[in-house]
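User: Hello, can you help with two protein structures?

Assistant: Certainly.
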Amino acid sequence: MTSAHDQKFIVFGAPAIGEEEIEEVVATMKSSWLGTGPKTAAFEAAFAEYKGLEKEHAAAVNSCTAAIHLSLLAANLEPGSEVITTPLTFCATANAIIHAGFTPVLADVDPETQNISPEAIRKAITPKTGAILPVHFAGYPCDMDAIMAIAKEHNLKVIEDCAHAIESEYKGQKTGTIGDFGCFSFYVTKNLVTGEGGLILSKSLDAAARIKILALHGMSKDAWHRYSDKGFKHYQVVECGYKYNMMDLQAAIGLHQLNRLEENWVRRQEIWNTYQKAFSNLPITCPKNPGSNIRHGYHLYTIRINEERSGFSRDQFMEALREKAIGTGVHYLSLPEHPYYQERFMWNTADFPNAKIIGRETISLPLSARLSDADISHICKTVTSLLNGGP
């Protein structure tokens, strides 16, 4: 029998990398072209096709943070605008709003889906509101019908944060194609990995073209179009841009990750469903099952540990799992928990009670196509044993 000491540590969010990615990266290194070039363009086209769009609607960048920042700039909001978003998200969502020169305004989440509440959005709207930035938490799509109705009523832009929701769909609509912009992450823990990386989908072709210029110093031509075998081409700086471009080295990984995206989604769905069945009668709160009109991205599997019910605080339970060689994550402490936002915006956790309690109780268990059946069995048995008073 394998002891906890002998058990291989299960790293949270380990990426599923195949030989194809490795070979493509090596081929890219041998090609003499590492920066933004033909592979980045091919990745943009392939991702756009996966989402049912023409390639001109996609712009690959170096992170989802950059994607949100550039989308906000391309949305042409009035100076001093407010952007409504969720308190239950990574700090990058709020930081990108701040870097774009706007003010983040929080609206509490629905306690079941853990997504931003349309009712709370309505209450947060002021004459300064310019956009709504919903986050499809853990891969469960937000209530986009309600959000788009609010946006239309108040003439607001909608920028979807799809960092968790590459494969997700809402009533047959693919996430990232419903609002004005869709922002994706390909960070190492995400469902599609390029190490670091992101991508923007824009409904407006003019906005997409501007985003590509903003992503590379505001220059009219990228390096591939200046230095390729077609001969040197001069460029002009047409805006004060940023250094947000994706490299071909990253795109080389992404092309093969995209090829296996649906296959990996099926595996993560199997793991997610195994967890749901194994934990259904334990003294914890499991995530909401997706309805028939929802395609879940299965990016995170989050459980809530209430000390009164389970006998563990959240941090105690995480430590108990670590001692059994199981890595976990926290997604997320609500934004008002952090000193910077408390001091700058006077945010108080009491004003967002659902996000507060979810943020203080949630643990994310490992969920990756790389996990073996033995890994999943160990996780299920350990969680069950701990919560049933076992060692």
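That covers the first. Now for the second protein you mentioned:
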Amino acid sequence: MRRILILDDEPLVAMMMEDWLSELGFEPVGPVSSVASALRATYEQEIDGAILDVSLGAGGNCYEVAEALRERSIPFAFATGRGAEDLDIRFQGVAVLTKPFDFEAVKTLLSSLFK
């Protein structure tokens, strides 16, 4: 079973993602709500992929986690209420779930991450 890290600082979104991942046959890792927790999970746990909320509390973002995942060749996608064009230039072309998203969007995203 593939393990997917969930980084999202909105508890309801994180719980929904956790439920959907389980329903789709994935094992959720987390959810975690901070960069520090996500980095710890990235290095201390076996994960196969990740869905990262771009904007985190207090003006933070997930890009440090995305870099760590990229360095380890772990596929990931971003979740954001903004468009893909607002992503840091380093991550243009990474898959994006646009909020609000639904079950089918998550299912499609995961299929594309693990072709």
